[in-house]
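Sequence in, structure out.
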Amino acid sequence: MEKLTIQEEEAMLSIWQLQGGFVKEILDNLKGEKPPYTTLASTIKNLERKGYVEPRRYANANRYEPVVTEEQYKAKFMNGFVGDYFRNSYKEMVSFFVKEEKLSEKELTEIMDMIKNNKS
């Protein structure tokens, strides 16, 4: 599985949210400033080449459906992120976010509850 560019990730997020779509639908669903239609179409072609989506032909247009799930993508690249930036330590990653005030005490408690519930 090849790492995606920022533009490809944004397109994939839209595709995952829609559970597939035509370029126009994907474009309309994008958050923030929208790229030109042709730029998005090229980005989606790259996603097809990389094996993230596959086209389904409807009349004269392609509807692009995800081949890779959002969960598969997150699992693959989150492990690399933690390895690259936090020496494979999720504890170190959480500690970083606490120090940067990106995680509150309430959120940490919620995380602890999730951990406890997954063990039972």
